[in-house]
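Reviewers of the previous submission asked for a worked example of the structure-prediction workflow described in the proposal, so we include one complete record here. The input consisted solely of the amino acid sequence. No template or homolog information was supplied to the procedure at any stage.
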Amino acid sequence: MPYLGNEETVKELRRALSNPNIQCDQLRYRNTVLRVIRSMSQGVDVSGLFSEMVKACATVDIVQKKLVYVFLCSYAAVNPELSLLVINTLRKDCQDPNPMVRSLALRNMTNLRLPSLVEYVEQPLTAGLRDRAACVRRVAVLGWAKLHHLQPDSEIDAVVVNELYSLLRDPDPVVMVNCLRALEEILKEEGGVAINKPITHHLLNRLKECDLWGQCEVLRFLQRYRPKSEDELFDILSLLDASLVSPHPPVMAATLSLFLSLCSGVPSVSLAALERVRGPLLAACGSGSREMKFAALCHIQLLLRSIPGLLGAHYKRFFCGYAEPAYIKQRKMQVLVELVNDDNVGMLLDELKGYCTDVNPDTAQTAISAIGRIGRSYSDKCLEILTGLLGLKQDHITSAVVQTMRDLIWVCPQCSDTVCSSLEGCEETLQDSQGRQALLWLLGVYGERISSAPYTLEGFIDEVKSEISPGVKMELLTAAVRLFLCRPAETQDMLGRLLHYCIEEEADMCVRDQALLYYRLLLCGLDQTRRVLQARRSDPSLGVFIGRPAEPVGQWARSFNTLEPLKDGAVETEPASRGSPEHVTFDPKPRSDLPETLSCSYSETGRSEDGDGDGGDGAQPPDSRSAVMASSTAAPLSLSLSPPLSPEEFERLWLQRQALQDEPGCEGAREEEDCVWVEECIECPTVPHCSPQSLQAAMQLVNIQALAFTPPQALPWRVYLYTHARRGTARRSLVLGELLYTGAACRLGDGRAEDEQTEATAAGRAEGEDGERRGIKVTLRLQPRDETCLRGFLSVLTTVLNTLTEHSD
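From that input alone, the workflow returned the following structure tokens.
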């Protein structure tokens, strides 16, 4: 949206443009036009100067013409009637003796993009195709593509199409490439430009004349041609041989893609071509451009699927640099796993061990996962490294190591003794749900070999009421039942307590149903339970197939030199997820909770209510909270921390609220055009006494990021947070929030204590001396405006704070 600016500025520019004294001085006139363009670039609305600028284009000064044409193309859609005034000047310039003026006029005539001017543009474009200057022909060819894009339903004259095909033999290589692009756009509904044998050989013979991107474009179009004989195929390959080892990675990639397309029936030639591009690919991996380096690594992974030993001797080229970004380090580690062999395994493991303590947790977890994959071949060396990492007592490292051990022991059961002996005390360091689930799986499957398994499991059971993740609870149920089958005397009592809680008190239906399943299964007898839960295990004496068979090139040839390898590389090949998921979905429909979510029900009587809202015999939730729940049942709410928000950007957006402080509004809500503000009071006064680590961990479990917070016990206590929220298929909204606790009664924006909520009945709620309820004031800002999404987020945030309150109680 343009910034209107000062009207005096526009008036001053109009007076200057209309001043005869300035018009007579070419330099002053040009500087005045330059001031108009400068004001336009700063956001000032100068559309009122359109007629004056039309007059300014009638000049012999090429610089001034360029400036005026920039203005006219920017405001032509705003002033379609006045745009007719400039057509005569442009058509006149198309006949100027200077080819630069002709090309400039022709380009801007097509850039006006007004359907009403099409009839005036066709004749100059046709004449431009036959112009003696190459720069004019370049513009005219692309001008026909713009004209077709402006009116896609209109038919282009066959004479024009034939003229464009004939220009494929133009002496200027840029005209030739532009003709390919224009014909592809114009003939899109007919399948694009037709590539036959004469055109193919002509393009190949002139390939070296084209610039870098012109060569890539020509090579892409040549993939449509299929040679009629083997001799013709090898003639084409001979012409492409020099481009296959080009020092320019885009040309090399396009040439290899054409090689693979032409040689789909000759696998030996395809493999030979892959061998030849080894040098250019390694050079691309050392490029100074991070994007080029990442793309080269992704395509190297494709090549290794067919030739695993292609780069085995060059494994040191894939060692990570200190200053490299995390996504390149992680991709290099994936390549290193493919290059491991008996000769370099020691050096590779030492290198990966150093990455395990990287400051970036994702990089460290990727390195640990890579060691685990190598451990399928060299289990003893890898287990020694993994066991040593457990001694660091860092939560993200311990979590990744336990998950890696779980995956390793699944395919290499001979490692079970070493893994079981190294798990002592891991539960004290694990913080994330994925790591706890992996540990519980190991305790359940190999509990008879771990002496402390019942005591570790009992610690989890004692804290099950404060456990947030349903996945951990479900894994805990399975582990407890499995351990009961092999150590019943030590496990019977704790299993009974766990089943009683999950059946009678648990609000999550998935956890409750699984507990009922195990309870009824135990009623059928221990033999039946063992048959279900203790299936046959692999023989520890058996090994595992190492590596993977080489894939035919044809399985991935179509995806080479496209974005597909980059998208595939965004996910690890390991089935186990690492850390928090990218998106956590909340679906607070009646009596249905998704895994890894917090229940959005409210506790008003000291116990969890079911999601159906009837509340049993307990007190009903307050009206405002009922409205929150009602507004959040329309569609699932998805929260994400991507893209990240810097503290500086948060401060800039948050301070915009000060401009709204003096505006009147309803209680607790202030709104602007594409933004909504909401203030609520949540009665959980014990949350400010929680440690920052506990608060941040609880927020991150549901993809809410806390940017700043005051120390516990300090007053006033504040927390600033953000997330990205989306409901269903709607657009994503940025949510900014502030939690404020002053120790006094919770007051909203109008200065009055909030008295609209129903009276609290739960024990332990703090009250002021005058009977007013104390709580945390929550201020939320959402942009773009989506009140339903904001209320859904408020429901999630309330659940997190209530859960922390229950834990602290």
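Residues 538-547, 570-634, 664-671, 750-772 have pLDDT under 50 and may be disordered. We consider this example representative of the routine output the project will generate in years two and three.
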